[in-house]
Design a protein that fits this description.
The chain is an alpha/beta fold. It is about 40% helix and about 20% strand. It is built from 9 helices and 14 strands. It has helices spanning about 15-25, 45-60, 80-95, 115-130, 150-160, 170-175, 180-190, 225-235, 255-275, and strands spanning about 5, 30, 35, 40, 60-70, 100, 135-140, 165-170, 195-200, 200, 215, 240, 250, 255. The protein has an 8-stranded parallel β-sheet with strand order 1-12-9-8-7-6-5-2. Strands 3-4 form a two-stranded antiparallel ribbon. Strands 10-11 form a two-stranded antiparallel ribbon. A hairpin with a 2-residue loop joins strand 3 (about 35) and strand 4 (about 40). Helix 1 packs parallel to helix 2, helix 3 (about 80-95) runs parallel beside helix 4 (about 115-130) and helix 5 (about 150-160) packs parallel to helix 7. The longest helix is centred in the last third of the chain and has 18 residues, at about 255-275.
Length: about 280
Amino acid sequence: MWTLTGFADEISPDLDEQIALLSTLGVRHLELRSVEMTKVLDLSQDQLEQVKARLDAAGIALSSIGSDLGKILVTDPFEEHLERTRHAVEVARLLGAPYIRVFSFFIPEGEDPAQYRDEVLRRTRAMVEVAEGSGVVLLHENEKDIYGDVPSRVADLLSTIDSPSYRAAFDPANYVQCGVRPVDEAWPLVKDRTVYIHCKDAKFPTGADDLGEVTPCGEGDGQWPELVRVLKDSGYRGFFSLEPHLGDFDAYGALSGPEGWTRAHTALLSLFTAVGVEAV
């Protein structure tokens, strides 16, 4: 039995519409990134409490806070961002989310990420120290153009920080968009500290102007059939979080809509069925 969750703000900005489709599909968890076009960390205390009450009433729990922490230039000021990390931990605890999705800072265009390693580690370690002892784990996502966008640097971050409060969210599509074969090249380096899977696929970029088309899982170059087999054989018990990215992008993500989200959900379940695993 594998546990499904997902970025329901790709269904609709409206929480009631998100809840309706999740309930129809039998998805009992949510990765909360935004509600009503407001990022989760920018919601007021009253709004957060209202969201929690509505999710509790629907029997939907949070798997993670889909934060934007670490999604700034490594050269941008950091103190305000560290304060946002403290707020994120408070929000996660209020909402009962065990994880917070984070990033490892954008590198200035055209510059060598290696020259920023020490600063990335300094900032990341400070964020992790905020989470330590809280019961909340920071999940590093391998986003394109941040320091940890390729497996060698993701592994470096995880092993150097070396904290149980810092783990990896494995995103095959993001690796593909960086020209990496997820199972062959990334998984061996990061598997020991991966506790969460982001579920989307992509096709390898074909040129400088091609970012790599995002597809449902199993329809791109993300080695999804191989990944689910590896995960089953290894006894994986973490979340699978649908992040379809099948629609237009805005500041809050990609609006896949109910049809796109359902299409992505169906594709993922078919991969699970192929290896004899059910999902809840």
